[in-house]
Amino acid sequence: MRIINFIVCVICFFLSQSINAASSSIRIAFLETEQRALIEPNKLLEQLTLAQSKHNLSQTEHAYNNTLLARLYLFQGDTKRAQASFKLARQQLPEQDNWILGYWLMYRSILSLEEAKLPDALKQIRFAQAAFQDSNDPQMLVQAKTIEGTLLLWQEEYTRSIQLIENAYIEAKTTNMSATTMLYVYTSLAAYYTNMQLYEQGLQYAVLARDIANKSNDVVNGLPALHTLCLSYARAEKLTLATRCYDDMISLSAEVKVPRYLFWAPAGKAIVALQQANYNEALQLLYLAKSYVNRVIMNPAHIIALNNNFATAFLALKQPEQALDYILEAELLLQDYDRPLNNRYSRQTLTLKAQSLEQLGRFADAVAALKLLVKLNDEAKESTQQKLEQEARSRFESTQQDIKLQLAEEKLKLQQITLDKLAKEGQLQTAYSIIGLLVILSVTIFALNQRRAYLRSQHRANTDPLTGAHNRRYILDFISQQLIDKQRDFSVSILDIDHFKQVNDLHGHAIGDQALIGFTTFLEQQLANTQHQFARFGGEEFIVVMPDLTLQQGHDFISALCITLKSLSLTDKKINLTSSAGVAQMTVGQTLNGLLKVADTNLYHAKNTGRDKVCS
C-alpha cells in the first residue's frame, strides 16, 4: 500500500509539473500576441476577430482573445464593443485558471472607470492582484498595482496611491522587469506627481514612459503615456512644449486611427490655448473634441470638464449666454456624478456660473451661486493635500535610498567573488584585509545613509512645505512630550490671519503664499530669544506654545505680538495684515484636545466680535 501511495504521489507530482509547464507556455504565447497587439492594434483586431471563428481553440484561448479584443476596442474608444467583448470573455473564463481571470479583471477595471463605476473598478483590480499572486506572476502583479494606484487618484486617496506605486517601482527596479511593466510604473508615477502639482517629478517620469514606448514601438500604452506627458507640460505651464506634445499626439492618433485620442488631443490642446488667451482657437479645438464625444467618451467627468472649458472660452469672449448653456449641461451631469472629485468639478462649474450670471446682470442668481461655492470651498478645505504631499515625497526619497543600498549590496557581492578568486591564487592575507576594509566601509556607509535618510524623512514629516515652519504633527508631539509629560505649566494661542481669503482673491495665491511665509518669518523673529515654539496649524492658522506663562501673561505676550504685526508689510503688495487670536492655559486634569478646543473657541469669539483682537 505504501508503494502504491508513493507511486501515486510521484505521478501527481509529474502531472502538476506538466500542467504548470503547459500553463506557463500558454501565458508566454498570450503575451507574445499582446506584444504584437501593442505595436499594431488595428492589424491584431482583424486577426483576433477572425481567430474567434475557429472551433479548435480552447476555452482559455477564447477568453484571452476576447479580453484582448476588448482592450483594443477600448483603446480605440469603441466602448460598446469593448463592453460586449468583456462580457463574452467573462462567460468563457475557465474555472481553474487564475491568471486569465486576473488578466480579465485587470483590464475590465479600466472600462469600469470609463463607465464611472469607480468602486467596481477598485474591486476588480484588487481581485486581479490576488489572482496574479496565486498564479505567481510578479510582472502582472506589478502592472495591476500601478493601475490601482492610478485609480486611487480618482478616489483622492493619495497616500494609498503612492504607497502602491512605490512598491511596484521597487519590485520592478530590483528584479529587472520588462519594458512594458516599467512603462506602467513610470506612467502611474507621472500621473501621481502631476496630480499633486509636483510637476518636475511628474515630467521626469512622463518622459521616461514616453521614451520606453517609442523605443519598443508600443502604441497602445504609448498614447496614454504621451497624453500624461502633454498634460504634465500644460499643468506646469510649459505651454510651448505642451502644444508640440499635443500636436504629436494628434499626428500619432490620426496615423494609427484611434478616435479616442482624437478626442483627448484637441481637448488638451484647447486648454493650452485657453491658458494662452487664444479663445477662438480654443473653441475650434473644443468643437473638434466634442465631435468625438458620443463615439468614444462615457465618463461624465470628462464631459463636465469639456463643457466647463467651453464656458471659459465663451466668458472670455463676452458671450455669457453660450457659456451658461454649457454650464447647465455640466450641472445636469454633476447631479448623477457621486464621486470624490464631484466637489472639485462642482466648484469649477459654480465659479463659471457665477461669472456668467454676473455678465448677464442677474446679480441675485450670481450671489446664490457664490454662496453655494463658499460652502463647497469650506468642505474642500477640510481635505487639504499639503501634508499628503510632504509625506509622499519623504517616503519616495527613502525608497530611492533603499534601492541605492540594495544595488550597493549587489556590487559588494561581486567584489566578494573577485576577492575569493584572489584568495585561491595565493593572496589570501591581502584578500582578507580588503574584505575587512570593505565590510567596515560598507557598514559605515550603510549606517550613515540610513541615518541621513531617517533625518531627512523626519524633517520633512515635521515641516510645513510652503513656509518651512514646524507643522501640526511636530507641535502636538512637542506639547505632549516636552510639557504635558513633564508636568510643566504653559499656555497656547491659536492665531488666524484676518481676511486671508480676500488677500488670495484680490491679489492672487502667490501673494497669499508670500503673506504666509512673511508671517512665519515674523513669528520666528518675535520668538527668537524665548522658549516659545510655534507651528503652522493649517491654512492661515498658526499656534504659539508658551512654556511657563500663565493665561494673563500669554494674553499680554500675544497682544503685543499682534500690535507689532499691524505696523509691518509682509508681501510685495505692501499689505498690512492683522490677526485674531485665542489664548488658553493648561489646567490640571485637562486633555490636550480640550485645551486646543478652548483656544479655538476663544479665537472664534475674537473673529466674531470684530477681529484684530485677542480673547482668552
What do you see in this structure?
The chain is mostly helical and 616 residues long. Among the domains are: 2-101, no CATH class; 301-372, no CATH class; 386-459; 472-615, Reverse transcriptase/Diguanylate cyclase domain (Alpha-Beta Plaits), CATH 3.30.70. 76% of the residues lie in helices and 5% in strands. The protein contains 25 helices and five strands. β2 and β3 form a beta hairpin. α3 (59-76) packs antiparallel against α4 (79-92). The radius of gyration is 30 Å and the shape is globular. The chain starts with a helix and ends with a strand. Residues 1-22 have low confidence and may be disordered.
What is the fold's blueprint, element by element?
Blueprint: H1 2-39, H2 41-51, H3 59-76, H4 79-92, H5 98-114, H6 118-134, H7 138-154, H8 158-174, H9 179-195, H10 199-216, H11 219-235, H12 239-255, H13 259-275, H14 279-296, H15 300-316, H16 320-335, H17 342-359, H18 363-381, H19 386-424, H20 428-461, H21 472-484, E1 490-497, H22 500-507, H23 509-526, E2 533-538, E3 541-547, H24 551-566, E4 579-585, H25 592-608, E5 614-615
Parallel strand pairs: 4-5
Antiparallel strand pairs: 1-3, 1-4, 2-3
Strand order of the largest sheet: 2-3-1-4-5
Helix content: over 70%
- Sheet with most strands: 5 strands, mixed
The overall pLDDT average reads 84
SSE string: HHHHHHHHHHHHHHHHHHHHHEHHEEHEHE
Q: SS-based structural class?
A: mainly alpha
Tally the helices: 25
- How many beta-strand runs? 5
Under the CATH scheme, the architecture of the domain at 472-615 is 2-Layer Sandwich
CATH homologous group name of the domain at 472-615: Reverse transcriptase/Diguanylate cyclase domain
Q: Rg to the nearest angstrom?
A: 30 Å
Which regions contain 5 or more consecutive residues with pLDDT less than 50?
1-22
